[in-house]
Amino acid sequence: MPIDITDNCNIGYLCTEKQCYIGNGNKIAFRWIDLNGLVKDYTFTELHTESSRFANVLKNLGYKIGDVFFTFLPKSTEQIISFLGSLKLQLVTGTLFSNFGEDALLDRLGNAEAKVIITKKSFLKKIIKIKEKLPRLEHIILVDIDDHLSESVMSYSKLMNAADITFKVEMTRPDTPSILHYTSGSTGKPKGALHAHKSILMQSKTTEDILQLLPDDVFWCTADQGWVTGTSYGIIGPWSLGISQIHYAGGYDAEAWFKMLAEQRVTVWYTAPTALRMLMREDDSFFENWDLSNLRCIFSVGEPLNPEVILWARRVLGKDIYDTWFQTETGSIMISNRPGLEIKPGSMGIPLHGIQAAIVDDDGTLLPSGVQGNLCVRPGWDSMFITYFNNEEIYRSKFKYGWYWTGDTAKIDEDGYFWFMGRSDDVINTAGHLVSPFEVESALLEISEIAESGVIGVPDEILFEKVVAFISINKNVEWTRDLELKVRLHVSNKASSIATPQEIFVIDSIPKNKSGKIMRRVLKAKYMGADLGDISTLDI
Ligand code: PRX
Predict the structure, then answer these.
(1) Mean pLDDT throughout 121-126?
(2) What is residue 488's predicted lDDT score, i.e. its pLDDT?
(3) Are 330 and 352 in contact (CB under 8 A)?
(4) Does 50 have pLDDT greater than 90?
(5) 460 and 375 in one domain?
(6) How far apart are CA 246 and CA 68, in angstroms?
(7) Which structural domain, as residue segments, surrounds residue 117?
């Protein structure tokens, strides 16, 4: 049944309070499993009261509709509760991946003019370092201290204890801004894709039509809530339909994951190709240890799902994997495979009912089947981003000839199936995370020994792509193992661990064109040992 938003379109309300009204109050909303295997269940009633309490925390601190709140936490119950509480109060609610370094944080919190952030003690250092450059930041709430440290660094538990569990969610309009997720491009700073509360309509619809979740399902989405999949499908879609979920604190671990699937009787599992490819490295006998009879299907997102993975899952797990395609900007699945539709291994499937996707050339002309071009989607779906926060110009540049340009290239076959071909820009997709070569290049240039840098993504068997850096170093500098370690650590601290180059090559100079633009194409050809193409205009 389509979700009913007539009384209120607020995501926080629809995922919690509304679920209690329609009889799901005593149902488990999620089972939290920590790294030691400790299990705690939260019913929809508890999710509702705890998120209301957090909405009151923010309200008591003086925040109101439109103010910007961020979570900067590893997977945790506090992250989920504060996310929903902030949405109940109609704050713009961002989530930050917990591995982000100082520069990555500053870019995002600065652009968003964040006023309040929830994090943990061990991350405080990073925020304190950049706090001076964040004049709008008023409060830092720490989940793991018992007492307030100051008027601006406060204890979550103390604030929660003092807050009421009743919170009246004000009537929220469908187009009221809701979630803010930053995404990396190939140039410039990360851009904050802002969504509206009505995005829940699409997250709910795709959970019903694509993931095909049923009331008694146990759903597990392995994505971190720092990214769009973790919020659209680790929180909103399933809870808009009152479906029970598993939330596990840990990252990839074959043993822990399969234990989870079997013991928790997961029925539908949403994960990423990198994780599936990592699982393929296990001996076939490993999979005989687990009873997966409850598992109905597996979905994946974020990077191309190679046909071998699908064939492996059929052979070893006896299950199909349904590839789905979407983006931070689209907010919900747009193109996908699904039970009931024949899978063509290697294809992303077909557009969701009501979504018009097409392949067009650079002038916006529709291309016939079999021809590779730009993957575009006709604007107007409910979970579409409404702007790039404080970056309206770049937002507008994404719309041309009546289409939203995704930045991906693809082709359609004669049966209407979409086949992903690549990106039309230099953005790197490593393990399903987009990394901006520009951000890594900038972090590298902060190191005094480095004169120039050029960063590319190259194919990787497990990660789909890996980050590779080319640098030139200053005269009289010796490239040593210590310096290499320093470089890696620096990028990890400033950008994030996922952006840290897997390989670093020292070369005499970085190829650039006459206007000084780094020719990543040439670096890539160099790495791949391919023909360098026409380099007559390059300054190399
Ligand atoms: O290039 C496509 C790739 O991931 C990009 C979107 O990344 P992001 O905004 O971080 O969101 C990731 C999670 C939805 C896309 O432009 N991508 C996503 N799904 C697929 C994919 N590439 C190939 N196949 C997919 N199924």
Answers:
(1) 97
(2) 97
(3) no
(4) yes
(5) no
(6) 28
(7) 11-409
